[in-house]
Structure formats: C-alpha cells, structure tokens
UniProtKB/TrEMBL annotation:
<keyword id="KW-0408">Iron</keyword>
<dbReference type="InterPro" id="IPR002401">
    <property type="entry name" value="Cyt_P450_E_grp-I"/>
</dbReference>
<dbReference type="InterPro" id="IPR001128">
    <property type="entry name" value="Cyt_P450"/>
</dbReference>
<dbReference type="GO" id="GO:0004497">
    <property type="term" value="F:monooxygenase activity"/>
</dbReference>
<dbReference type="GO" id="GO:0005506">
    <property type="term" value="F:iron ion binding"/>
</dbReference>
<dbReference type="GO" id="GO:0020037">
    <property type="term" value="F:heme binding"/>
</dbReference>
<dbReference type="Pfam" id="PF00067">
    <property type="entry name" value="p450"/>
</dbReference>
<protein>
    <recommendedName>
        <fullName>Cytochrome P450</fullName>
    </recommendedName>
</protein>
<dbReference type="InterPro" id="IPR036396">
    <property type="entry name" value="Cyt_P450_sf"/>
</dbReference>
<dbReference type="GO" id="GO:0006629">
    <property type="term" value="P:lipid metabolic process"/>
</dbReference>
<keyword id="KW-0503">Monooxygenase</keyword>
<keyword id="KW-0479">Metal-binding</keyword>
<dbReference type="GO" id="GO:0016705">
    <property type="term" value="F:oxidoreductase activity, acting on paired donors, with incorporation or reduction of molecular oxygen"/>
</dbReference>
<keyword id="KW-0560">Oxidoreductase</keyword>
<dbReference type="InterPro" id="IPR017972">
    <property type="entry name" value="Cyt_P450_CS"/>
</dbReference>
<comment type="similarity">
    <text>Belongs to the cytochrome P450 family.</text>
</comment>
<feature type="binding site" description="axial binding residue">
    <location>
        <position position="320"/>
    </location>
    <ligand>
        <name>heme</name>
    </ligand>
</feature>
C-alpha cells in the first residue's frame, strides 16, 4: 500500500509542493534572519527541523512549525531522539526508552484520534495517515481489523515514516554542506548548473517580474530534475556518509553468496556501508574523495555502474520507497540554500560522526550564514 502511494504522481507532486512551500516560507526566511544578525547556527539542527516539518506534513497533513525564528523545543522530536539513543547504547538507558515511548504514544495516538475525527466529519485529506485509515483493511492480511489493532499499526507506521523521513534526509543534508564547505570546486559547478536553469527561464521568458525582483530564489523540483552534477554530488555524499551506516540481514534459508560463501539459515550478516565507501577495491584509490564525476559517464549522463555497489537505499525489491522523496527534498533545499547563501564552517569547529543508529554529527554543524551576491 505504501509503495503504491509513494510511487503515485499525486504523492510525488504533494512532496514537491510541500518541500517548496516550507523552503520558501520557513527555511530561507530563518537563514536570512540568521545572516542579518550574524548568528552562529547549527545547520544539522535546522535541517532536521526542516525534514521533520516536511515529513510531518506529508504523513499527518498538518503544520509543526519547527522552523520558526524562535527554534522552539519539540517534545515528540526529542522523544524520538532519546529513544534512538537508548536503543543504540542500551546499557543503563531502559528508563529513558520507556519515557520516550510514553511521549511518542501520547502524540501519535493523539494525531490518529484527531485525523479519525476529521474523516468522520467528512474533511478531505491527502496525507499518508488518511490514506491508511480510509483503506479499512490491515495491509498485512487484507482483512478489516479492530480499531485498537488499527491504532497500534497506524502508530508504528507513522513513527517509521517520521523517523526515516526526518533523520535520513536531514543527516544527508548536513554532511553535504560540510563536504561542500571543503570543496569549492564542486560548489562552483553546482552553482553554474543553477545559473543555467535561470538563464534558460530568462531565455524562454518564463521568469515573471515578481520573481526577478524577489530577494530569495526558491527552486522547484521540476526545474532541478535534469541537473546531473547536483544529483551526482548528492549520491557521492550518500556514499561517503550514508545516513544509516550499518545494515543487518538474517538468512532465511541456506544460500550461496556471489563470491561462493555458503551461509546457513539464521546467520546474521552485518553490512557497513560506511566502511564499504572507504574500500579501494570497491571504489578505487580516490575512494576517500568527494568526486561527483565518478557518477557521470563520458556522455555527460548519470552512469548506472556505481549503482551496482551503492546500497544506501538498499537494492532490488527492498529498494527504499522513500528514495525519490528524499532526492526531491534534498535537491530543493540544496539548490535554494546554495543559490541564496554562502555557508561558512565556524573556525575551530570539529565535525565528526556520532555513534548512533543514524550517522548524526557528534557536535552539530556550526556555521555562519552570509547572503550571496546575486547570481542572476
């Protein structure tokens, strides 16, 4: 059911619209305010707020407003972080996990109750939660279920999508801007691509008077669809710093791996995507470098070859159904932020991974924002 929903044109258009709206109305105004007041901001925190707001709107259809100038505390968001940390570290964290679970249940069951009330009143809704509720069936059995079981299933499903959509994409954006801060050549090529997008709109007469006068340019998903180097740079970021650095698989039936290794039923296989990215025999001697060119073939198109060893989104029938959503969000954010602002890493600030289920930074990404001179 989720796969059908995520691959529909209506859902993709909704994701693109939500991303554009939140970038335009919240993210860019916040960064502009930070630039004018010379704030030092934690870009990781801001990106996680953005991805939370956009994912929340896609799932529940409402506004969570985490990107307001005050950068408000969010009880549910903190509980998700506490729960993740407790599951990762385990020892001595049982109480923290129990408390986090109570808070998560309070909020998610509340959203489920409110959504059911809306639907009962005949309110039309295009969000993911409403789609599950109006199916009237348990997706695992295709049979109607009791409201209690439905609510638990809806809670688990909503939490899964909220966690995956917020943490993975927000983390990827963080590492992207850190890598770009050390790679001015890559930044310059991406900016050139964006200038060409606007130049084509000027040439075709598509740019209106209001857009020419606007101080902040917001790109939409359609404009960015054909940008090869931007897509390649994002893939390269996800290769070097995969949001989920480790994955686990359990053998259901005895099998033989492609290299001839026999694996018995019940065997646990741990796959470190983070380590794979740094193996020369997989990616070459330049495996530690940010090199978007490795994703581009001699004709200037995206090369399919790296995808055979790129498992950040898994592969085959287990391919992540949120992949297109993630790329849509990342492209709109990256293009709009890079085009309007210069992002400078705070001098002396150390950026390194934090031990976690998700590859967050240990100390955040502390930066200063400066408005970029017009590129039009």
């Amino acid at each position: 059911m989720a796969h059908t929903r995520f691959t529909s044109k209506t859902f993709r258009n909704n994701v693109a619209s939500v991303s554009h709206t939140i970038v335009q109305d919240a993210l860019l105004p916040l960064l502009s305010h930070a630039a004018k007041h010379d704030w030092v901001v934690d870009l990781e925190d801001i990106f996680l707020r953005f991805t939370y707001d956009s994912t929340f709107r896609v799932i529940f259809g409402g506004n969570s407003n985490n990107l307001s100038i005050e950068l408000p505390d969010n009880e549910l968001l903190k509980a998700i972080d506490d729960g993740t940390e407790a599951m990762c570290l385990k020892l001595g964290k049982e109480k923290k996990l129990i408390e986090a679970s109570k808070i998560i249940d309070k909020h998610l069951f509340g959203y489920i109750f409110s959504k059911r009330e809306e639907l009962n009143r005949g309110v039309e809704a295009n969000d993911l939660l409403a789609a599950y509720m109006t199916s009237h069936k348990n997706p695992t059995t295709s049979k109607p279920t009791s409201s209690t079981l439905d609510d638990k299933f809806l809670r688990d499903t909503a939490l899964t999508f909220l966690f995956a959509g917020r943490d993975s994409t927000g983390t990827a954006l963080t590492w992207f801007f850190w890598l770009i801060s050390k790679s001015p050549g890559v930044e310059e090529i991406i900016l050139q691509e964006l200038k060409e997008v606007l130049a084509s709109k000027h040439g075709s007469g598509d740019i209106g008077i209001d857009e020419k006068k606007a101080s902040l340019k917001v790109f939409n998903a359609e404009e960015l669809k054909g940008l090869v180097y931007l897509h390649a740079a994002l893939c390269e970021t996800l290769r070097l710093y995969p949001p989920l650095p480790m994955n686990r698989r359990i053998v259901v039936n005895e099998d033989v791996l492609p290299n001839g290794t026999v694996v018995k039923q019940g065997t646990k296989i741990l796959i470190s995507y983070y380590a794979m990215a740094r193996m020369e025999w997989v990616w070459g001697e330049d495996c530690h470098e940010l090199k978007p060119e490795r994703w581009i073939d001699e004709t200037g198109k995206l090369s399919p070859e790296p995808l055979t060893k790129f498992f950040t989104f898994n592969a085959g029938i287990r391919n992540c159904i949120g992949k297109d959503m993630a790329f849509t969000q990342m492209k709109v954010v990256v293009a709009s932020v890079m085009f309007n602002f210069e992002v400078g890493l705070l001098e002396g600030h150390v950026v390194k991974p934090k031990p976690s289920l998700v590859l967050h930074t240990k100390h955040g990404l502390k930066v200063r924002i400066k408005e970029r001179a017009s590129l039009i």
